[in-house]
Amino acid sequence: MRLVRAALMLGAALLPLAAAAQTATRPAAAAAVKPIAYTERTLANGLRVYALRDTTTPNVAVQVWYDVGSKDDPQGRSGFAHMFEHLMFKATRNLVSEQMDRLTEDVGGYNNASTNDDYTNYYEVIPANHLQRLLFAEADRMASLVVEPKSFASERDVVKEELRQSTLARPYGKLFSTYLSAAAYTTHPYARSTIGSIENLEAASIEDVRGFHATYYRPDNAILVVAGNFDPRQLDAWIDRYFSRIARPATAIPRVTVQEPARTTAVTYTVYEPNTPLPAVLMSWHVPADRDADIPALTVLNTILSTGESSRMYESLVYRDQLAQDASSFLDSKQGTGNLIAYAILAGGKTVAQGEAALKREIARFRDAPVSAAELAEAKNEILTATIKSRETAEGKARTLASSVIIDGDPRAADRQLAAIARVTAADVQRVARKYLGDQQSATIRYLPDNAKPAGATGDTIAVASTVRTAPLAAPANVAIVTPAPEGQRVQPPAPAAPVRANLPQPVETRLANGLRVITVERHDLPIATAYLVATGGQALDPADRSGVSDLAATLMTKGTATRSATEIARQVESLGGSIGADAASEGGTVQVTVKSDQLAPAMTILADVATHPAFAADELDRARAQQVDAVTVAFKNPAQLAALVADRATFGASPFGAPGSGTPASLKAITRGDVTAAYARTWRPDQATLILVGDVTPAQAQALATAQLGSWRAPAGAATPLPTLAAFPAPRTVVVDMPGAGQAGVVVERPAIPRSDPRYYPFAVANTVLGGGFSSRLNQEIRIKRGLAYGASSGVDAARSVGSIAARTQTKNQTAAEVVALMTGEMVRMGAAPVPDAELATRKAVLVGSFGRAVETTGGIAGIIGEYVLDGVPITELQGYTAKVEAVTPAAAQSAAAALLDPKAASVAVVGDAKQFIAPLKAARPDVETLTEAQLNLDSATLK
User: pLDDT per residue over 335-364, tens digit each?
Assistant: First the structure.
């Protein structure tokens, strides 16, 4: 994938992105979800075309999926399909390098791509009037991609940085990116990781790349999906014009036909790796291809196993026995043999033997006895809600259909699986557990810190087996080398059509007698609703020696009330198909739930109970604190995450805005129940709270629900605690945290900025988007595109009610950390030195407007935007005025804001990595640099010592 906007990241549970995406497009349950409506045709050259019309959106999604993935990588070239994906964004005969970004991001859309074991997909969402231009561009890169040495070398360097970021720098990166697949297969090329290895990337040649394109990037190996607002007759004409002329090669398409043999003897590996803050254990079992009739039952089993806090793994490993800091599972089904994977990141003081025994016990429960009727019903409801959410946008529906075609060979597969899941019985779940999940069918990886290795011991090596069968790249003979058309002979993309007007939602606001604001946004196109309760206060009110207390209080709000236990809350909400979450932000707190709209009333009952009657039981506090200490311990071993925390403290010093919002091991251990109840009371009261209801609900229904569930909530006597204000900021610092052996260096440049209410907010937001917002931003251009020094570089504005900040961030190989700091600060200076050219400013405005437009397509997106307005003290009329205010920013206004608010002289710099590789050039450029070891670093102190 391209850039951090869709990277292989340490996600909600360390779930590999490809598996996460596939799981998300395979949920299913009852018939409450309408089948995806589409038309289908096949061109004479073999290109299959699917069209999904939706006139309620001003956007259109264009997706091209190729039936080639990492399983098709040539021998000795693992990571090849993924690297080739990057090259597809370079030049074609008619398009210059990076022009796909000009045609998408620069007009308010976006583009990206991903590589899976079985496919490579390219996708864009753009304003509907730009559809013809994107069809032209997708056809051009299918037919006439230019592969030349400069871009080949640059993108190979970018992929190396992506590998370092996703696999080498993050904790457990090797476990999920490399070892999982290698341990799971002995014969099938699924054994190789999608991202490959540095050695294999180095071995790839430009001739290999050209041959790969000629072999697989052809119309009869692709599908085109268009979803959104279009005229069907016009769409057909454009597709015929641009795609039908692409020739269908006469050569056969190579296919992987090898079958992975069934595993009949359990295999176990023990490995010792650096940057492993807590031990982990992972187990996998083979499952059949996604089109198999047993997949619906396995989907239900996996949902019961690990979806939500009422799942079996969470209840036993995380909650009851406190064995794991994180425990989950995922069903990675494919064209061929897939896997069900279960893992546990152990809690502090627990062993892999305990974790392994617990995982085996939970899997055995499925074999030994049928699941309960309640578990079965809950799983189906959860799958159904997830399916509805995945189809809220045209892009989501397109992705679901395309995956069905490529993985299952049937565009109706997702709908068929949805219906099949509704028919799954408890006996079906037990049957598939016995068939596929036996002890002797497992592959186990015990993943331990390298400093835990006994003296004289050697860990196991997990490598792709020599018996894995991969075919050599059989490229067609005499592959034509495409070169750019001479200047003046390029065929230019067609002009955009007339814009399609967006239909912005209209919030309706009322207020209860107790002061609670109620904001409703009606959306009746899908049977789904989001309830979002926000209140001002939050982490900014945490005492100096109790950082993390608001975060801990938010966690505990869903862990028991006066009448419901933590387990009852989870089971009751998840039985409705939803999940409830409470969070603390820098200046507020939130509680939210999304459910099918027919379940909104019972969900609101639980949300209200959680928000107004939390129990904060002592045993729950002890459990949550231990989990949070472990989570923080893991975060502190990630160079990028630690650099962000160090930069915050350097920027804001002793103020609450400098303290880690999630706390530190020391601050968390000091927190008492009295601290937690006080933190809750500072934030949660009706006169500073707002209930936001979005989706299939009317204002009258919302008012009735709010009155019934929250009307009796009373504010305590006395005024609410005011948020702190900052009159001055500490002097800027340059801080290095030495993390020997780190796979990459995390780099952050941060400085104070303005609160959201400042009249310079919109010029500042636009200036920041020029600097680091999007793939075509100046930071990403300089650091990734021109030099290949990082997988991505970006900047972001955090403008809250009381204070604001601007931070530029990236990760790079240790040797280039000092160079990257200079590039980042240099671009910040340049922003204030001269006006942004009109053309560039227009594209960056489009980025903001387009992102806003896509956010308001979902119930959760609308609720989140309005919730931010409430916490930041912004009128909700901003929803209607946002686009006009962005468009009104002039070059002079953006330059003025940049000169005042982006000057790096006021910025602190944090670099976390292997200091010996970059400290000399960094000191030469910044003599004031302070170097701390990990042991010396103290985030509880404003001095960091």
Answer: 999 999 999 999 999 999 999 999 999 999
Among 558, 572, 661, which Cα is nearest to 617's? 558
The residue assigned the tokens 């609101």 is 604
Percent of the chain with pLDDT over 90: 88
Contact by Cβ (8 Å): 469, 207: no
CA angle 33, 38, 39 (to 5 degrees): 160
Joined tokens for residue 187 = 């014969």
Measured CA to CA, the distance from residue 938 to residue 666 in angstroms comes to 9
Predicted confidence band at 75 (pLDDT cuts at 50, 70, 90)?
A: confident
Ordered domains of the chain (ranges, CATH): 39-168+196-243 (3.30.830.10), 267-452 (3.30.830.10), 508-638+651-710 (3.30.830.10), 734-933 (3.30.830.10)
Kindly compute the dihedral angle of the four CA atoms of residues 875, 799, 766, 828, in this order, to the nearest 10 degrees.
170
Which pLDDT score is estimated for 29? Answer: 37
Nearest CA to 378 out of 568, 208, 175, 524 is that of: 568
Question: Alpha helices, DSSP H only, in 454-599?
Answer: 549-557, 566-575
Contact yes or no for 533/592 (Cβ under 8 A): yes
- pLDDT for the residue 198: 86
Best CA proximity match to 868, nearest among 858, 879, 853, 859: 879
Residues 447, 216: Cα–Cα separation, whole Å: 37
Q: Which pair of tokens denotes residue 760?
A: 């310079």
Task: List C-alpha distances in Å: 345 to 13, 349, 791.
Answer: 9, 12, 27
Burial (CB < 10 A; 0-12, 13-18, 19+), residue 823, is buried
Number of residues written out for the chain: 945
Alpha-carbon distance 232 to 527, whole Å? Answer: 27
Question: In the beta sheet, which residues pair with residue 508?
Answer: 520
Tell me if 478 sits within 8 A of 669, measured CB to CB: no
Q: What is the average pLDDT across 461-485? A: 84
pTM above 0.90, yes or no: yes
DSSP string computed for 112-126:
EEEE-SS-EEEEEEE
Compute the C-alpha angle 762/765/768, nearest 5°: 150
Over pLDDT 70: what percentage of the chain? 96
Please choose, from the candidates 180, 169, 198, the residue with its C-alpha nearest in 3D space to the C-alpha of residue 463: 180
* Pair 448, 279: CB distance under 8 Å: yes
Residue 370 has pLDDT above 50, yes or no: yes
Across the range 544-563, mean pLDDT stands at 97
Of 270, 137, 156, 150, nearest in space to 202 by CA: 156
pLDDT in tens, 871-891: 999 999 999 999 999 999 999
Average the pLDDT over 465-474 and give the result.
83
CB 470 within 8 A of CB 189: yes
pLDDT of 419 strictly over 80: yes
Spatial CA neighbour of 47 closest among 206, 178, 242: 242
Sequence-distant (6+) residues with CB within 8 A of 572 are 564, 602, 606
Give start and end residues of each alpha helix (H) in 834-939. Answer: 838-855, 859-872, 878-887, 891-901, 919-925
